UniProtKB/TrEMBL annotation, chain B:
<dbReference type="InterPro" id="IPR000485">
    <property type="entry name" value="AsnC-type_HTH_dom"/>
</dbReference>
<dbReference type="InterPro" id="IPR019887">
    <property type="entry name" value="Tscrpt_reg_AsnC/Lrp_C"/>
</dbReference>
<keyword id="KW-0805">Transcription regulation</keyword>
<dbReference type="Pfam" id="PF01037">
    <property type="entry name" value="AsnC_trans_reg"/>
</dbReference>
<dbReference type="GO" id="GO:0043565">
    <property type="term" value="F:sequence-specific DNA binding"/>
</dbReference>
<keyword id="KW-0175">Coiled coil</keyword>
<dbReference type="InterPro" id="IPR019888">
    <property type="entry name" value="Tscrpt_reg_AsnC-like"/>
</dbReference>
<keyword id="KW-0238">DNA-binding</keyword>
<dbReference type="InterPro" id="IPR011008">
    <property type="entry name" value="Dimeric_a/b-barrel"/>
</dbReference>
<feature type="domain" description="HTH asnC-type">
    <location>
        <begin position="1"/>
        <end position="62"/>
    </location>
</feature>
<keyword id="KW-0804">Transcription</keyword>
<protein>
    <submittedName>
        <fullName>AsnC family transcriptional regulator</fullName>
    </submittedName>
</protein>
<dbReference type="InterPro" id="IPR036388">
    <property type="entry name" value="WH-like_DNA-bd_sf"/>
</dbReference>
<dbReference type="InterPro" id="IPR050684">
    <property type="entry name" value="HTH-Siroheme_Decarb"/>
</dbReference>
<dbReference type="Pfam" id="PF13412">
    <property type="entry name" value="HTH_24"/>
</dbReference>
<dbReference type="InterPro" id="IPR036390">
    <property type="entry name" value="WH_DNA-bd_sf"/>
</dbReference>
<feature type="coiled-coil region">
    <location>
        <begin position="1"/>
        <end position="44"/>
    </location>
</feature>
Amino acid sequence: MRRFFDLASSMDNIISLGVGEPDFITPWAVREACISSLERGYTSYTANAGMLELRVEIAKYMKKQFQLSYDPKSEIIVTVGASEALDIALRAIVDPGDEVIVVEPTFVSYAPLVTLAGGKPVSVGTTVETNFRLMPEQLEKAITPKTKAIMLSFPNNPTGSTMTEDELRGIAKIVEEHDLLVLSDEIYAEMTYDHTHASIANLSGMRERTILISGFSKAFAMTGWRLGFVTAPSDITSAMLKIHQYTMMCASTMAQHAAIEALQSGMEDVKKMVQSYKQRRNYFVKSFDEIGLPCHVPGGAFYAFPSIKNTGLTSEQFAEQLLLSERVAVVPGHVFGSGGEGHIRCSYATSLDNLKEAVTRIERFMKSLK
Amino acid sequence: MDGKELEILQLIEENARISDETLAKMVDLTIEETRDIIKELEDQKVILGYSAVIDWTKINETETVTAMIDVKVTPKRGVGFDDVAERIYRFPEVRALYLMSGAYDLSVVIEGKTMQEVARFVSEKLSTLDSVLSTTTHFQLKKYKHDGVVFSDGEEDHRIVITP
């Protein structure tokens, strides 16, 4: 990824489909709340777990959007991005030698974070044949006596795949049987297009063993603010809080004020952005199919993950040649782990004009391969 | 009205030049279905026209003067404000006309080539109408936002080329 990133960054006038963040700018009311926070002089630390006012808003949001109840005083921590939440969750639950199942293709940092926490990542690859969903029998096969937890991420980066409540139920059953914990990264939960988001924490017996990770980056277009949160039973959050308080102390105060505004008034903006992503997804995926890059329909997030297998190139070769010849940046699928090879990740979090131009260029590139 | 119709309306309100093909893909319909919906919305006069938002100040020779005029009128028995409104909106200089609540009755948006032209319209045509009691003219000095479109170069995309 780094080599490819350096190459892409060194070139001019490229159309980037390689960006894993919204192309919208944080809604104005949210930016305004941050400015106001500074004007009123809120420049000191907050409680380690985050401002209680924000945690109360997060609890209300989780209840309203996902029917999940968490106690703002003991079961919610505001973190420096979902990334920090993932890190402290793993460090809180993993003992040296513990195995953590990572369902791939997935976000690039999961396996390294398990290793950093002293654990051993165990990769389970999913494929396009199952729409990149995890099958219960795959999970069952990967479990050993050392397995401590499983990391899930739906909607998924990079595949955009989602899982319904029924499909998650099969996973939950095995998790419960083997007394595992689940790290459920639901940062893209708002970006589901065809059915409402299902959280594994909602299934019977799962709330007590699920660490749910989310944040403001994707839904509210607040990536640079570095603000995430985690909800879990209090025995887990108290262990996580110990790590958080010694490493981060607390998330930035003005960002927390902005987040309160986001939760109180930003849902209309979220709806508009999600509508726009859905329309672009429809456009993009249909166009990929037309130009000979078969693409499963991603139910969430803002990524298309078309197959490039029929070109005979590896995902890295495809991405590099496309960048050099047509100046379109995509991310080779193999960087997302097992099951990712043979695909490229194309983000549609960019303007329709850019998407159209990208499709034209990729089509030209495809013809040049014949 | 179903969701697809609303989606189409929102998309063409944002960009009336979007092609039928692109529109169809975005709302997940065939081109024929999309065209049928648009045709029907046009027939029903839901879609009244297609226009562009243009920053005329960037085209020197076509600069215009816009004024918003607050008009107090005497409504007429039976037709209320509609009669006088119709007499006003028929003037080609009138770009928009709204019935308002509050300190005055009608808000008239006038566009002319020069300030004199607007002044002449107000004094000779608008003020002389029987029902018009008074007018207050406000000239527009600068357009910052119009029809939801911001009249500046907008915010740049600051994202780096590849992020996870």
